[in-house]
Amino acid sequence: MKKPESINIEFRDPVVKRVVQKFVDRSNVGFKKYGRTLNSERLGGHKDLVAYLNDIQEELMDAILYIQTAREELADLREDALVRKLKEKYGESFED
After folding, report:
1. Structural domain range at position 76
2. What Rg do the C-alpha atoms of the chain give, in angstroms?
3. The overall pTM is greater than 0.90
4. Helices (H) and strands (E) in the chain — how many of each?
5. Cα–Cα distance between 46 and 72 in angstroms, integer?
6. What's the CA gap between 2 and 39, in Å, rounded?
């Protein structure tokens, strides 16, 4: 097994730094789960192109479901905030 490489990167944007760290963390989770990197998986012939395309499609479908769920959660939070404001303005007699 190849020893992990280490590089020194200067980040001017902390958002980019956090995203890069998430990629590294995600790679570590995958390695721990599957015992190989994406590179060794590809070079070892563990998956073909169709399998990679299927993985991408499934991940994007999951992403769309997460987006919809987040939108619904945001709508609920906005509705709750509106009800709180109305109760503050009109008192507890306001029925939601």
Report:
1. 48-96
2. 23
3. no
4. 3, 0
5. 38
6. 12
